[in-house]
Amino acid sequence: MDCSLDSEGPLRKKTKKSCDTPPEDQEEEIIMKIKEHVEKLREKSREVRDKIELAKGNGMVATNKIETWLARADTILSDAMAVCESKQTGLNWDTRIAAAQLSQLRECLSDQPSDVAQPPSVLHIDVHAVLLPSQVLFVEQARQHIIEDAEGMIGIWGPVGVGKTLLLKAINNSFESGNSLIPSSSNRGDPPFDFVIYITALEVCLVQNIQSEIIQRLKMHDRGDSLTTQATRISKFLQDKSFLVLLDGLHCNLNLAAVGLPPLGNQGQLKRKVVITTRSRSLCDQMRVNRAINVPGLKINEALQLFQECIGNDSLYSEPRIGALAKDLVEQLRVLPSELIRIGSAMRRKREPGQWQNILAVAKELMPIKDQEASSLAEGIVITKLKQCLQNLRGRRNDVNHVIELGKREGKVATNQMNNWLASVDTNIFVGMVICESEQNELNWDLSVIAAGLLGRLQECLNGQPSVVTVEALPPSVQEMPCSSIEQQPSRVEIFEEAMEYIKDSSVGVIGIWGLGGAGKTHLLTNINNAFRGDSLFHYVIFVTASKEGSEEKIQGEIGKELKLKFPEGGDVKSRANIILDFLKTRKFLILLDDVWNRIDLEAVGIPYPLGRSKVVLTTRSKTVCGQMDVRKEINIARLPDDEAWQLFQDKVGQGTLSSSPRIEALAKELVEEMKGLPLALITVGRAMYGKSNPKQWESAIHYMKQSCCDGDDQDLHMENDVFRRLKFSYDSLRNETLRQCFLTCSLWPEDKEILLGDLIRCLIGLGLVDECDIHGSYRKAHSLIGELTAACLLDSCDTVYSDDYILNRGTYTFAHQEMPVKGVKMHDVIRDMAIWISCGCSDNKDKWVVRAGVAANLTIRAIPWSRAECISLMYSKIEKLHPVPLFTCSTNLKRLYLKNNRLDERIFGAIQSFTELTYLDLSANRIKQIPEELFALVNLEHLDLSGNMGLREVPIRLRELTKLKFLYLGGTDIERIPKEVISCLTELQVIDLMTTNYTYEIIQELCTLTNLKAVDIIIEGDDRYESLRKAAGIPFRDLIISKLRYTDELCLAVDTLTGDIAGRTLNELHVVFSLTMEQIIVGDELGKPFDALSVLVFRDLFNLTNIVMWEGTSSLQALFPRLTHLYVDSCIKLQHLSWATYLPCLEYLRVDGCMDMKQICMGAGQESSNTFHCLKYLILTKNYKLASLCGSDVTFPCLELLIIKHCRKLKRLPFTMQSLPHKLTKLDIYPWDNLEWEDEGVKSFLERRFCVVDSDSDLDSDSGAYSYLDLVSDSDAYDAWNTKLEWED
Prior knowledge:
Residues 150-299, 507-771 form the AAA+ ATPase domain. This is AAA+ ATPase domain-containing protein. It contains 44 helices and 37 strands. The chain is an alpha/beta fold. The strands form seven sheets. It has a 16-stranded parallel beta sheet, sandwiched between helices.
């Protein structure tokens, strides 16, 4: 009968007939056979279950196969009875199903496994002690190696009493299902081994004994077979099984193959492992273990806790000294938990410190021999021999000390070997006396064992006396150097401790301490040298001063002198290196290399590499040198905090001087402030002011320090010789003149003024110090130069300043150009003074550079030496007027004039018109309203900065006469037009900033004619000008604002559509602002050309924008925006999400403000959503009233540092879980905080610790003078003003 059965079960209703219905008698025959086989299967199942119960009485368990068979039999019996019932009722009867059921019954009867029971996989072993945390960790790690290692043999070794047996039992029990001893081992699923076999090895470990243990454990019949036969039986039983054999207390090598264990390791799906415990590391090697694990001692806090539990608080605190003695005793015993328990119990209620001292002395010496073999001699005999040996050793010691005393009178010293021998003799004699005088054995130690072990050591001392007693004196391993303490300077103590920690870290080879000259690096290194006096960590500590002229040959000479090595006359660097190498390669050494200026090849010097446990610590002024010297841990030594600086100054000037007049202490504090915590300056000036009790002297010193040091008399401060000339080495060591000039230029800014990188780079470019073929190359080069100066400790980096005003102001045409992210640098006051001193020819030409920046009311204009200066800086000085400079005092040398951020008007041009040699003029951020004729007398100008003069409205046509101009900045002004043929005449122009309004198409055409042009900043307003922009393919736009597009409902954000190929390579910043009609922005086009340099993208006040999408053919935004770091979206009230932003590979800053319809930042980024924002550091969200979610919980923020969310009241949850916490987050400001809901309190707790109110909160709620839609919807006057500002055509 050819019938098919439905695959989903025997009782499923048939849906289609595929064969004829059989005769009635045939159906009855099937039913009878089913009932017959049901009875047979039931009987068989009962027999199997009876056998299992019987086996359980013998310690066996059912096999996995038989349990599976029984479950299958129960199912088949149930289904068969259901078939019989359907025949009786006539419901759902199907002969095909009945026939199939009969077939299953027959198969089940014939498939019964032969093995019914087997030994249990794991036998539980009682562990009466509770594992300590370190022991739990050890078991976990050992268990992991057992399961994961591919090899088969693991050795666990350590001394008697360390707890190896306890740990091995815990490992055994960890493989039980539901084990609670090791919490993390429970609920692991199926065990990895069929059998875990625990065996205790006897001291004489025979193959036969191990075989018997295995046969008994596996419930195999012991037939008294030969070793070979038993090995074959064991091997055959285990050959198709995974097993773990735990062999405890192995004393000798054991042939596991002879035992019968199959080859170990991972064999396909089978895991075959053996773990042994032993006292001997060498036995692990003999057994060829693949991984040897040493059992560590308890952590000190665990040992103390265990000991305290054994001894009780009554004894521990009965006398003040006992606590300290107990702690020392625990330190000696903490490697042996069993000894802690036994001795702790023995010392209970011992309240005499003398008892504790004796026990401690014995423990210190006897614990190392506790593990040795017991002597076969009787205790009394051993003690007698011990006393005789002690007497002989005392006499030998006295004789040696007499020889050493005579040798000292001849300038000799005892050899290290002899000193060690004497120390060993003293110790052993003391311990021997304690043993011999003991009246009772309170610790229950076997004195025969202890005395026998010590007797052997005493005999070794007698036989091992060195033959040479004294030798010529060598220099000490550490030569102590005169140096003041750093204890009164907590900041230096912290650095000292950090350095010492690195020195003692075996994984660290070369350590670099770098910082500003005069910051105290040598002082710190000297303290490190002296700290090793009397320390045995290193054989030799060698202090070497490299200095600026340092070379391999000089370093070799210094090391040879320290170590008293003899170099052959006329030997070269290589021969000397061999001598040093031969000496140091077998010794641990610490080389302290002070004042390194350039890379020194330590291997060429002869220092062994790799260093291993030896160390090199160097000091340098340059972080770059740390890299050249392969430093692995670097420490920056900064200036002293104010309180420590004041303390150091007091120490040098003397309390008598400070108290000599009521005013002097206040003046002294003011003077200290001027030195900004630089130790060299504090010490120099403090010594110079010692004994000066006249307040006028102090006022004079303060006046000198406040001015640039070229402007006054150094009088008695000694700044030039003692400070500046020493710091000047850093300047001289800069690799080229360009770097030196960049450094000097930084001194033109006011004291303590943060120099924004954008301002500094623009200055360096304007001076021609950086001149690459394209503008981005120039910016990259400038960043590199500034980085080198920072690494040389001549500039200090300032924290990143995220000025939201910058982006906002760019959108409203107020010029504030900076590189993003906005960063800055500072100059230390003393370094700045040194730079000005160098600029003035080291005081030989004091009027060459005149820097009065930031002096404000203290500025005396008439005192400026106009006739002699080459560079003058009066930045940030609140100057309102400069008197005209008389013609006879006119400078023919003045090339650079910095008048930025003053209150000057157009009269300034009359005052400076005679400076015809000027090439660089910065008049930015003043009050100039027009450009008079006097400017055009300055025909040599190359750099002219008029930006930020908000009242300036027009440009004279005569501007075209300044034909040497290369850099022209007009941004942030109110200039309404530029006459024709002005721009085109400035043929040398490289950079022009036109960030103001109302430029015509003719201006764009003129820009196209400039062949030297590298960068243009411009605002394009209106659709017509936007169309003209698209035709200006040859202009290298750098910063571009597109505004007031009235007829453009769809903007294509693509290189060719916007600006063309050149701008695609130069465009750094793009703003699209102010539009009521733009509905969609399409990112990319069919060509897919990338915006190679674009780093800032802003969409603002696009009130009808509903969507920003990728062009359908664009494969990836990663290729389109490879360097975009900043995205700012403001007042795009209909925009609902920014999902496309998740694909920006370098996005660091994302701010979304006033997007009222936005419900979610990312709507789901699909497969790439996980870890999407891998570079995002700053996320700011404000006034997005419908925002309910940031993104899915699968999106992570691994680099997030700042998170600000304000006025987003529908936001209830953040996308963080305990697995995706932003661990780099340092600042969090969310309002209202109480509005949030939490699925995990752990996430809330993590974020609360980082919650703070960000200082820029006022900026976040401000739009810096610009009208946003949020203001317009509630304020009709604001709307009218805004509408008027847009100046729509109709």
